[in-house]
Amino acid sequence: MPELPEVETIKNELLPWVVGRSLTEATILDAKLLPDSCVEELEHELTGQMIESLERRGKYLVFHLSSDKSLVMHLRMTGRLLVNPKESDAHVRATFCFSNGIQLVLSDLRRLGVMWLVEDAQAVVGKLGPEPLSESFTPDDLAQRLSQHRIPIKAALIDQSIIAGIGNMYADEALFAARIHPLRKADALSVVEVQELYHCVRGVLSSAIARKGASVDTYVRPEGQLGRAQLDFRVAHRRGQSCPVCGAPIERTLVRNRGSYFCPNCQLL
DNA sequence: CTTGGGACCTGGCTGC
DNA sequence: TGCAGCCAGGTCCCAA
User: What pLDDT does A87 receive?
Assistant: First the structure.
């Protein structure tokens, strides 16, 4: 599932294909993709537009167009962006043809992905919390934000308005690395614990970007290769397997209705 | 106001 | 073998 490292990888690998290129044709095959606009209007508005730049904000992709509008995309659980896919695909939801002859395909098995064409991308991404990997984001920022919430720390880490880009998998990995139980209250962590968590969040995300994302479930990179970050996972999706630190079996519990994997011995409540 | 839980969506897997 | 039900989870929406 695309979280920050996966979306960052998609952005990096898509960049050379689309930036500076013009859209010759846009085809939306699933109206559910557009919560706020109609298919024909959006197809028409996109045609002829040049992609001036492409950026990631949280888990969103933002295509800045020559019309000064922005196409903002969220892949949610199973959305994929593929360049010139060779294999046939029953879940294609949109296709984009570019002036350099390439075809960009949006495929989405569970149909939860969405996109918006907006005057100002802030209308979509404005409510997001800080980027965890930005230089301006400090341990004090994290401490200040966590201190305002009584919710489980796991729920706080995946709340996009508190901090942007972390999803279920990387929240579990960061909490394991920091030896913090997912159900601890966000505002009850010590200064030392928050500092440790800050470094673990950044470490886990940076390593995953270096590995080009985690290919669990449906994630593949735009040119079809798999990511390798899942090979580093120590607790995520490893219920029953041995904790790499102490050997105890990894457990799964629910936090806000999300499966949460942790070591009951290393991460005490 | 905050917090928590369900809905959305589909296909693979598990267990009876 | 068949099939019901669980599981995956990002975000929105509603209720307490």
Answer: 82
A90 Cβ within 7 A of any nucleic strand B atom? yes
A55 closest CA partner among A11, A113, A114, A14: A11
For chain A, domain boundaries: 4-125, 139-262
Q: How far apart are the first and last CA of chain A?
A: 28
Is A80 in contact with A1 (CB distance < 8 Å)? no
For residue A182, give the H/E element and its range.
Answer: none
CATH topology for A139-262? Helicase, Ruva Protein; domain 3 (1.10.8)
Spell out the CATH class of A4-125.
alpha beta
Q: Å from A51 (CA) to C8 (C1')?
A: 33
One of A111, A202, A228, A258 is an active-site residue; which one? Answer: A258
pLDDT tens for residues A53-95? 999 999 999 999 999 999 999 998 889 999 999 888 888 999 9
A257 touches strand B (CB under 7 A): yes
Alpha-carbon gap, residue A79 to A111, rounded angstroms? 8
Contact yes or no for A153/A184 (Cβ under 8 A) = yes
Do A49 and A67 touch, CB atoms closer than 8 A?
Answer: yes
A2 is an active site residue: yes
The two structure tokens encoding residue A184: 């601890």
Kindly tell me the sign of the dihedral angle through the C-alpha atoms of A121, A126, A127, A131.
positive
